[in-house]
Amino acid sequence: MTTAPVARTTTAPVPTQSTYQTRVADYWNAEENPVNLELGKIDDLYHHHYGIGEADWAVLDEPDSTLRRERVTAELHRLEHAQAELLASQLGPLAPADRVFDAGCGRGGGSVVANLRYGCHADGVTISAKQAEFANETARRRGIDDKVRYHHRNMLDTGFESGAYAASWNNESSMYVELDLLFAEHARVLRRGGRYVVVTGCYNDTYGRASREVSLINAHYICDIHPRSAYFRAMARNRLVPVHVQDLTEAAIPYWELRRQADHLVTGIEDTFLSAYRNGSFQYLMIAADRV
To answer: What are the DSSP calls for 35-57, one per residue?
Structure first.
């Protein structure tokens, strides 16, 4: 066991990682993908998830190649930010004194969005030391590091105080862990009546087993996408009662259509996402649940 600083405490244990978790950490410690970094540079909000909503297709008609790249990048960032705002809207009502937990926070955009919306305290957790350092520096530049802090920790075993959080979430990070372990930790740190929200890609049980496209996405991101039903079963076992479920699949398609035409940002997985969404094997889902 090693130790790392935690907000409002001296030190807390960083749980030993499994071999798989170490591989995931290595991946994100080395990651310098323009689709994450170039979008975040626009306003210092770095998201590690996808976007929703209708795109402004006029950005593709820009004749100047340099300006076209800038406009496409800005539009993708706008769609990603819309997704973050939708998730944050499900966390409230929150007061400035409340604490929220961003599980699998990446470079920290979601915690900033929650703080800007509610004025609340936020603790982000990432298994990547590089991401935690990056996110903390971003919070310092924004002058919100007294309320928004990021920790190099395992979101399955954070060491945070039980019942201390009014809300918590996973934004496209639940496919890296076992759901029962994840939801048990959220149920532990949330106060009674606290709100948990997850936005995730999941494979559609009615389609059958995971499709070829889902397998390709797993290989691309070294993750393990869960079936849709697994989320609801694991929530029921861990005192999380869904109060709102929203299928965002159709709303996500414009983002991927635009991204596949952004030559400076494509990663090669864009057509796979579009095929999976359209053949019905893959869904983009948001679930809000109350801790009972």
So the answer is: HHHHHHTTTT----S---S---G
Nearest to residue 199, comparing CAs of 38, 33, 47, 18? 47
The answer to whether residue 3 scores a pLDDT higher than 80 is no
Predicted pLDDT of residue 157? 94
Q: How many domains does the chain have?
A: 1
**Best CA proximity match to 168, nearest among 158, 145, 178:** 158
Closest CA to 268 of 255, 284, 253, 256: 256
Q: Is 268 left (phi over 0), alpha (psi -120 to 50) or beta?
A: left
Question: Strand 2-4 and strand 190-203: pairing?
Answer: unpaired
Does residue 203 lie within any of the structural domains?
Answer: yes
pLDDT surpassing 80 at residue 152: yes
Q: What pLDDT score does 4 carry?
A: 41
Q: What are phi and psi of 214, to 5 degrees?
A: -60, -40
Q: What is the DSSP string of 96-153?
A: TT-EEEEET-TTSHHHHHHHHHH--EEEEEES-HHHHHHHHHHHHHHT-TTTEEEEE-
DSSP E strand stretches across the chain:
2-4, 12-14, 99-103, 121-126, 148-152, 165-171, 190-203, 240-247, 282-291
Domain assignment of residue 177, given as a range: 24-291
CATH of the domain at 178: 3.40.50.150
Instruction: For residue 221, tell me if it sits in a domain.
Output: yes
| pLDDT tens profile 42-64 | 898 889 899 999 999 999 999 99
Structure-token pair, residue 239: 């005192």
Reduced to 3 states, what is the DSSP secondary structure of residue 90? coil
